[in-house]
Amino acid sequence: EDQVTQSPEALRLQEGESSSLNCSYTVSGLRGLFWYRQDPGKGPEFLFTLYSAGEEKEKERLKATLTKKESFLHITAPKPEDSATYLCAVQAMGYQKVTFGTGTKLQVIP
Amino acid sequence: DVKVTQSSRYLVKRTGEKVFLECVQDMDHENMFWYRQDPGLGLRLIYFSYDVKMKEKGDIPEGYSVSREKKERFSLILESASTNQTSMYLCASSFRNMNTEAFFGQGTRLTVV
User: Fold this and answer.
1) CA distance B12 to chain A (A)
2) DSSP-assigned letter for residue B108
């Protein structure tokens, strides 16, 4: 059974204080690993897809990396508008189903 | 832009009522999904559909059914609503045979009283 574990559950940062969110996963052949951002009361918004170990993707202050067992979402010099819950999800080869982690709630304080 | 639209943002229903949640997508996606999201439990898959009239059970299908009569529309049905079905319900869609992400609707906050 596919499993996704995200840590920490919650993270509080000062504006400008860089940090990383972790996503550990087990899957029988990775088709894709996804990162989403979710604001309160809204649906998740897609950020990145990573397909193979060693791959990296960037968007503004966010950078996602992937190894065979985990993914990191690095946040550089965060701003208060980066406050949200960040979700990680995996999809196995040959399957349409996506398994989500429980998320990391990030709060960036001015 | 891909758009996934859920028919209601907020719903309040009584125990025992039959409840319909509707979802429409405009990107010709083959796959459509229904999730529920609860604090501490994350997103859990209820049902998904990979084609018209096709459906597969997810992780928590008990108490729910689905209908997909047209490619763009996927309905979630609570046959007899119960208080433990109070939750945020999220619809998503994606292409079937490509390594692409799913796009989500804005969510329906259902309260069963």
Assistant:
1) 16
2) E
The verdict on a CB contact (< 8 Å) between A51 and B99 is yes
How many domains does one find in chain B? Answer: 1
Strands A104-109 and A10-14, how do they pair? Answer: parallel
Q: Is the dihedral of CA A85, A90, A96, A102 positive or negative?
A: negative
Structural domain boundaries enclosing B25: 4-112
Which CATH number fits the domain that encloses residue B94? Answer: 2.60.40.10
Q: Is A94 on the interface with B (CB under 8 A)?
A: no
DSSP codes, B53-75: T--EE-S--TTEEEEEEETTEEE
Instruction: Note which residues in 72-91 of chain B have CB less than 8 A from chain A.
Output: 90
* Chain B CA closest to residue A5: B42
Instruction: Write out pLDDT tens, residues B20-68.
Output: 999 999 999 999 999 999 988 989 999 999 999 899 999 999 999 999 9
- Write the residue in A43, A96, A102 that is nearest to B96 by C-beta: A96
* DSSP calls for A65-79: EE-SSEEEEEE-S--
